[in-house]
Structures are given as C-alpha cells and as structure tokens.
Amino acid sequence: MTTIFTGRIRPLAADPDEIAEALVVENGRIVALGTAVALKAQHPDADIVALDGWVMPGLIEPHGHPGYSSILLSHLVVDIRPVTIPDAAGVLAALRAALAASGGEAVFANGWDALLQRGLPDPDIHWLDDLAGSTPLVIIHNSGHSAYFNSAAALAAGVDATTPDPPGARFGHEDSGALSGVAVEEAAVEQVVAPMLATAQQHLPELLLAHLQDLSRRGITTVSDLSWNAELNPLIDALHAQGELPVRLRWYEMSRPGGSVTARGEGDAVSRQVGVKTWSDGSPWIGNIATSFPYLDTKATRGLGLEPHHVGEANYTAADLLAIAEPYAAAGWQLACHAHGDLAVESTLDVYEQIITRHALADHRFRLEHCGAMTPAQFARAASLGVTVSLFVDHITYWGEVLVDDLFGAEHGGAWADAGAAFAAGHRATFHNDGWVTPNEPFRNMAVAQTRTTRDGYRMPGGTPVTRAQALAAQTSNAAWQLFSEHEVGSLTPGLFADFIVVDRDPVTVSASDLADTVVLATYLAGSKVI
C-alpha cells in the first residue's frame, strides 16, 4: 500500500531549513520526499492524506522510565510533585487526605521536594509515624533517589535496623542504630516500595499502555527506558503482537554488583534492549552528587540536613564501577551511567577509557546521563573517547534559581547542564525528561537549552545556549543515533520508518517561547496514525 502525505514538511535531515510538500510511504517506510505534483505523478494509485499543520520527525525520549512512570503517575500513587502541588501546605493536605481515605491500606506518594515546596518538615520516621500511625506510608522524593517511610511501612517491606545496605545504596540510621526512615538511592528505595510494586502488577497492562499513549500524545514516537524490568517483556510482546504499542521502545537493564550478564537478543525495530544502566552518583536535590566543590551553606541546604561545606559522594568507587560495567561491555552492550557531579563524570570517564582501551572498542557510544556539573574540558574528553552525552536541561526550567542561589552559586550552578559546551565539543548531544521527574515536554527542553531561562524568567549566569538546529536534533536525529536506531528513525528520510508528528507551528522559525508551547495535533508510527 502506498500513501502520499501532503503538508508543510520539515524533514530535519541534512538541511535543517528544508521544507518538502509531500512524502511517500510504502510498507511503513518513507520512499520519497518532494513536491506534491511530482510525487502524485509518480504514484498515481497512491492514497492521498492531507495533513493540516507542520510535519516533523517523531520526537525521541533518550532517557525515560516508562516502566516505573506508568506506576508512579497512576491512581495507585498520590501525586505530590511540585508541578502538581507547588507548596508545602498543599502537599501536607494531600497526604492527610490520602491517609484519611485509605482505610488503613498502605499509602504511597511521589514527588516530595523541599527545595521547591518550601516549608516542608523533616520527614524522619518520628514525624511520619505521627502523621500516619499504623498505616504504612512511603513518600518518594521527586528525584526518585530517596524515599521516606514510617515504621509500619518498614515492617510491611521487611526492612529493619539490621537490614544490610544494598550495593550503591543505604538505609538511614539514627545515632542509636534505629532506622531514621530514609532510603537513599535506587536499590534501597526499591526495597521500601516493593509492596506497592507487587500490588501494581495486576494493573500493569492498562497502566503501561495508558502511559505510552500519553507519550505518543506528546509527540514521542520512540522512548528509551533506563531502568527496565525484564518482567515487563511479555506484556510489551503482547502489545506489539496485537498492534497496540503506540511507541517504539529501547530499553536498558539496571546493572549492579553481582548482576548476571544477559546474552544479546536480536529484538526488532519496535522493541529491543540497547544496553545497561548504572549510577556513579545520585541527586543534587538530596546532597548526593560527587563534586570537587562544596554545597553552599544556606537555609535550603541546612533544610536538607547538609552540614556546612558538604560535599557529596559517589555511589561506587571507580574499581566498583569497572567491575559492574566491564562484563556487559565485553558482551557487546552499550553502557549508560548516571553522573551529575564533575568527580562522578571524571571517574566514569576513567572507567570507560579503561574498558574502551582494554577491549579495543570502536563504535561503542557509551553514554553519560544528566551531566549537570560536567565541565567543557570533560565534554571534550568524552568526545575524544567516543562517549556520548544526554543532558537533563529541564532542570534549568524548574530548579535554575535553586541551583544558583541555594545549592552551588553562579560558577557551578549557573553552568548547569551546559548543552552548548557539549555541542561545541563535537557531541551529538541529546535532551531528556527522566520519566516522571519533570513532565515529558521535549519542546520545552529544546527551548530552555536555547535560552537557559527558568519558568520564572531567570537567566542562568553561566553555560552556553544552543542553536535551534542543535535543539531539534537533540530530540530527533541525535537521539536516534544515541540509541543505535539512526537506520530506523530520527528524520524524515527515504529508507527510514514514517514516524512523524503534526504540530501547530513551524518548529524551525518560531521563537523559543512559542516552541516550548508547541501543540501536537497528531502522531504517526510507520505511517499509521496512533493519536
């Protein structure tokens, strides 16, 4: 079957300013672009679909978490994220309301952020016990890197004062040795939320599909999952077989000490594993990133429980990280490592360089994730090693003032997520929203990377803006390349799948503020309309 789509088409290929009038799709792939008259003459029997709006490649989320997001953004969890409830009073009211309505059943909430929701109390186990009593209560920090729990939740999760810390994570303890009610980093958080995850299993088919459909409505046609649970594979396979999967999925398994290296599977163009993910450090919002410079001594940092001149630490030593990562790299997997602090970045690059040299790797495309405090020199070093970067530029939108005034000052906070430096070093850099941490808003990512301005109009005092062409590439062709999918998606080019979206404005010429507010009118996957 041949279909000709007509409209104002931005292929975003070799020439970012190119506009085509029509594209021809056969068997889900693009076979030609050009003028409507010429293509209709060449394909007289083709179906004609007129698209009202601007057409561009489908967007790619290179660092998402759809598996967990489908649960954390569902009805099973109380949504207290700052983008939903901006103030402390609202958060506390939502928690009390959920507890009152729970009938004693466990309550899970997601989105606690004392830096944005000013005035939140210290959520230690005593406060949580007073708040929830015998009802299990777990509150996940907005970053996902910590969780707070009461005594009843600890009992339900099988965690007590003698529970050993998981590798790369820990449970907080009081001076007496008793639990303090905090789990820090992924492996510890997972133990605390295990009862909720178990309950969610029966709802996963509808929750995951609904979340993927939401991504599609936002113009995302390919999403990666950097914390994939392989137990979801049968569900994905079933959706794929039924033709109900509204996006392409590229996933990374979580790798930790003692993990077994899986054999590389073939997968297909719709769903496949790309690599493995680990963590070098944690979150800037809880004081847990490895930097060469200290946090500021401010009311905000004191509120986080950080002592003056606090410096965060890495989750693993370089030797630990090497032991975790090398077996996967030797088996041919792409490596992706979360690294915010400049010391975490440097340590990860040291490990990557050892692996690359030892195994004579060429086109490995090892990844650094988030890159908050990564310096221009480190971007250059990464590029020289063939290491690619994905930046969390939306941190600027929501936490820009916090980074400068409360946490790190103008020198280090002002240059946060320096996408311009990444492109200047020669990177095919990408942008992401990190699952539930910020809304999935790729057009806003592009805009903030171009302006380095927060939602309240504050212009970051450091860092380098990107160009519009670079911003668009970051969530289309660059992201496809980063996911080893450039032969399938990323631009509207003959031979690639016809994954495209229709939007209400020209993404190339509108202002940055207008770009951020782009509305997606329709989403197509392999030439078929899904939204």
Could you describe the 3D structure shown?
The protein is of the alpha/beta class. Helix content is 34%, strand content 22%. The protein has an eight-stranded parallel β-sheet with strand order 5-12-13-14-15-16-17-18. Helix 2 (66-72) packs across helix 7 and helix 15 packs antiparallel against helix 16 (468-474). The protein starts with a strand and ends with a strand.
Rg, Cα atoms, Å = 23 Å
| Widest sheet, order of strands | 5-12-13-14-15-16-17-18
Arithmetic mean pLDDT: 96
Helix count, DSSP H or I runs of 4 or more residues = 18
* Secondary structure tally: strands: 21
Shape: globular
The biggest sheet amounts to: 8 strands, parallel
Counting helices, strands and paired strands, the structural category is alpha/beta
Through-space gap between termini: 21 Å
How much of the sequence lies in strands comes to 15-25%
Spans where pLDDT lies below 50 across 5 or more residues = none
Summarize the amount of helix as a percent range. Answer: 25-40%
Structure, briefly:
The chain contains 18 helices and 21 strands. It has helices spanning 36-42, 66-72, 88-101, 125-132, 151-157, 186-200, 204-217, 233-241, 299-303, 318-330, 342-358, 376-385, 394-413, 419-424, 442-451, 468-474, 477-482, 512-516; strands at residues 2-9, 20-26, 29-34, 47-57, 59-64, 78-79, 107-112, 137-141, 146-149, 170-173, 179-184, 220-228, 248-254, 271-279, 334-339, 367-370, 388-391, 430-431, 500-503, 520-525, 528-529.
